[in-house]
Amino acid sequence: MSRALGPLVRLLLVGLVALGLAAAPAEAQAPIKLGNLVDLTGPTSDQGKDIAKGRNDAVQWFNERGGIHGRKIELVSVEYGFQPPRAVAAYKKFVEDEKVLLVLGYGTPDTEALRPFITKDKMPYLSGSYSGHLTDPRQTPYNFPGGIDYTSQIRIFLNHVKETWKDTSRKPRVAFIYADNSYGRAPIEAGRAYAKEIGIDLVDEEIIPTVVVDATSQLLTMQKKSPDFVYVNTNTQWVPVVLKDSYKLGLKVTYVINNYGIDERTPKLAGDAAEGVLGIQDVAYWGENVSGMKTLMEVHKKNHPNETPNSPYMRGWLWVIVAAEAIKRAGPNPTGEAVKNALESFKEFDTWGLTPPFTYTNEDHRPTNRARLVQVKGGKIVQVREVSVDRDMKWIGK
Amino acid sequence: MKCGGFRVSYGSDERIFDTALPIVGLVLLLAGLAVFPPFATTYWMDVLNRIGIAIIGAIGLNILLGFTGQISIGHAAFLAVGAYSTAILEVNVGLPFFLAIPLGALITSGFGLIFGIPSLRLKGLYLAIATLSAHFITTFVIVHWESMTKGVVGLSVPPAVVFGLPLDSDFRIFYLIYALVVPAILFAKNLFRTRVGRAFIAVRDRDVAASVMGVSLLRYKLLAFIVSSFYAGVAGGLMAHHSRILFPDSFTLLVAIDYLAMVIIGGMGSIVGSIFGAIFMTLLPEVLKLTATSLTGIYPQAFGFIASVRDVVFGLAVIFFLMYEPLGLARIWVRFRSYWQLWPYSY
Fold it and tell me: ipTM of the predicted structure?
């Protein structure tokens, strides 16, 4: 090699190496995209807005600490107004255009609708829907409900009825009130079967619209069957309508509300009508003494100084925490398959104390079998006791 | 030099297009659409497909509303019947899509015929309420006839298959949708050059006078409902294949109102207006969404804020058109065209 070429070659080599060095971190630093489906305008927007805030804040928090494996997280957000067709369109965008690694889903109607697509695309889908139909990995291997499934909740309710029933002269009578959508109906069939199994009379079922303004006629029909306990499966925004109408009619029943129907706002919205109402809740309430609460409170105070936080905000965090952990476990170049396997390696994973620890296995996608029975007392929500059901494989996917 | 409309023979009077320009434009547009997909993202294909479906549906409604003067708020129900009957024919009976879509559309026509019967006695608002009942009855049936429709859980539809190739993506279904959009437009455009179409217009303008002239109101009003719901049936069948999942929630009253808005904003009694209306109403929310997304970098709350103002913008757009351009986008188009036709002697 001639003398003149030597430095040139060296320069070229140095340049190539430098380019390589520059390219490698650039590749590693490409953000990890997550699909973010939220409802800000639809019938569940009361929770949707807080959930969206929680997800944004959580992602920001992780990014400020360097992201995952040095890569930032990017949320690709779509607002879908709780309309399944719009969710289908959003999902296409996530998968085909944005190439997201994982989707933070939202409601039951849309998640159930997307089931075949999710399985086909091998897209890990962490949903806000806790429908029992999504818990069976043989049917829906990529669906991961982000909380205790509705079927377990209705079984907790029925067990509670059984345990507290002292009258030996007759069996307890229960009724179900549920919203007219697949969220409302999700656990009902399993509830019917379980009531029969443990010897509780299901005397009535009342269906209320997704957006309910008056439940008087349904409650009057229900009154004729005189149930002792009523399980309500709709959203926080609409539960007070049922409670207030019931209070107005003077019904003497014990209401038990599922996790999405009761939060800090219930006593404020329903007033006296909410007194004594029970709820099944998996997430902690605001300000409770759990490990992650301090962080959440600080971030909330910083980002939304003038707003009152509600528990759906914590759910927003919860799912990002779970997703982040799964991505971390899936390694620096995660694929959908790897994230799914990572999620299935969760064993008593501590969700910063926001919920009971999560366990997913390749046979069972029910994250937890534990929750808390809460009650409205003096305008505040207090914990009555810890409740749980056994992880019976008979109920999986139901 | 040609200046304005100047026809010297019956032949030239009967032509669909006055000048060669729209034909060239159409050919270019179709060619553009045909080669567009490989360069587009799924998102834009999805939008284009929804526009195509909306065009068929809006033309259908315009035939009824704009050309025959029969108000219908039941258009979402007609779409639903088309979508569900197509899907059920494929899922439960096992028909291929090229039979299921036309059969589904025929079923929808029958359904439209039944709900068109009140139009013989009722007019205006009264008819609107009668067709509204079609909406509620359909929704009720879809929700509760679970063995057929899978109720609120939603009915999965298999992809249409052409020569062994499943049309399971937005890129593939696009060609099916636009293969039906073109004949839908041409049929409607020609319909109003025929005796039937003229009769529709006569019924719209003054039904008593039309009846005196020998136009059978019974026949033509029902025929309008049949044709209109056939279009809705086709659009519904395409919706089933596009989203591949059907819910009662896909066909709310808001959908019917969206279609009414398409016809009003686009221009009542104008085929090209239906097309403009369909494009406008499908693009508006997307444009707002894109604006919101691009603004989130500067102002993080924009996403939530714009989601909430979308309905307000919709409402304002409708009011704007009703006040300042009651004949819709089609009228703006006509003015634009005649300006250039007459240019530079536009005095």
Answer: 0.71
